[in-house]
């Protein structure tokens, strides 16, 4: 059974004196918050005011600066809704719950406010009348800025246990108020009203792969983001240095969720689309669905491997190189031998190139020294060898040979010849040249792709990168590798220097310690030089997230993927490289898969990486979409898979979805009427990809005046988003747009928080017609 917004369950209507009482406490908390801010600011100012001093003093200052700045940012982010809950226990204890922890230093650091992530705050989310966990009353405190505007109480005794809470909702009044609010185009946090099934997921252990499956609007995105905040709070030491990565389907979606983590006081999380996960290339173009599907197949690994091998050439004709009037020859045999040696190392292409080059230069050196010896002996009368005298005595000693070798290796002609046979190449250049050559595509992909599929890969060298290219570039980066021997030597030197410096600092600090107190743990006991050097690096001005964004080899402490069903097998290979520890949270809904290369089962998606070692949690309650809208969406879901059912909606609105037959040009009229109905809320018009251009043209004038509240999007772009009212245009065309057309329509129909309408200018499936009612006439 759903609960209508007017049916809010407050067990007792708390009077105004309760509000006044809570105001007093909440005002005290804000006063404490101000005090903490002032303290952090004073400390920061003091540190910033200092200058000069020893290297140790500078290091300490840097650490202090970043600590106080972080604290200030955190204290600044919790201003809205600082305190949102209170628990009264049977033993007369009272606890307040909020966005961060505040303590009373004058009274033994007694908690004034508990951070929502602290274990002691858990009953706020989990306690029910049937299992109250010692809680007598749960109170939601509603605030506007610093003012308490209301409280909602639940008394958790058994008499309340069967009061129709069939969805097991905690804090229904506060929850329904949160769900009824107008959407602004930015997602809000749900910290005050997290439900028990969501809390279990948020606080699930850090290790291993956790899959969260749930229908539309069940809070998967919200849960994923709160989990990021929870993990950073609970495992800060482990995660702060490696960072947490949150992957979303597109940049509109990332903008939509961008404010949630900062509002929870967390700024060190890297948000990215897969199109941004290859440093050094940015996806600006789009592929057709068919091309994206081919590029996403795991067989692309074989194709690229073959393409890289094809680039390791044996010359058709002997390459002649004239060095100091001598003609040296790279024959097919020499190149073949060098290639075999280099491939036998199993090293990536650019790294194995040294072996190839060495082998060719060796062969050329042999030719050159042979010539020289012949020249030296020319005209010298033959003298018979004495018995026992070596017959292979050479005139050139090893130093001469080394010199000749070095000269050959550095000669531009030799280098050019080697480059033509085994080029040093970046992933970007390789892929551009590959796409631009039908011949290379045919040679590498002949065994794996049909002619038509190969045709989909071909494109001009100057075309922009696409999202589906990113995992291919990443794969190539692995296959090609980087000959970074010189860079590594420099890095090792820098690390040695840093360690020596850190040892110096520790030595000074230890001397101070010894003078101070023999009993106290000394710095060296708890921090060795290596760790200290690492920390030095960590406190560099960049956060882990920022450093990770620039480094392809960065591995994250935890990776969260939203809309995980959309990722292709090639995307997964890239992501798994970024998270060798396999500490991951994957949230999605296989019924909403739109990408042709996306997954239809979690098992199929994950088994190549973790076999069956992943755990599944499900979300079953829909917080976004009212039940009337879900009844219509269920029509689309049945077409996706008759065995699936829609999640249960928390709310009814009494508004059945409407339908109207009208042309593209009439859409703005419907949108205007929806804008009026949602009174300041948001409206989206979702259309088939092929009609987007024409529909946007029709909306040019309206978008000028209502851009803040109105979006016109192709269905694919609406993934993960929500609006107060949604108008879906040409549903038949959406379903016919791709092999996953019904999934796309299901996504479109489940974006509305309040109202849904369908406009069609072609036929409408009878089941869709039956689940809606005739709506307004156009104009
Ligand atoms: N416990 C909660 N309290 C208040 N609001 C909630 C709660 N859980 C979810 N919501 C709200 O429900 C809406 C849907 O949540 P969310 O976008 O996370 O769902 P989703 O499962 O990711 O949906 P989809 O698969 O359709 O993208 C959001 O507005 C979210 O804020």
UniProtKB/TrEMBL annotation:
Binding site for ATP: 214-221
The protein's name in its UniProt record: AAA family ATPase
Spans through the membrane: none
Domain UvrD-like helicase ATP-binding: 193-626
Sequence ranges of Basic and acidic residues compositional bias: 9-23, 58-69
Annotated region described as Disordered, given as residue ranges: 1-23, 47-69
InterPro entries, per database record: DNA_helicase_UvrD/REP, P-loop_NTPase, UvrD-like_ATP-bd, UvrD-like_helicase_C
Species of the source: Amycolatopsis minnesotensis
Signal peptide: none
Annotated Pfam families: AAA_19, UvrD_C_2
Classification lineage: Bacteria, Bacillati, Actinomycetota, Actinomycetes, Pseudonocardiales
Keyword list, A-Z: ATP-binding, Helicase, Hydrolase, Nucleotide-binding
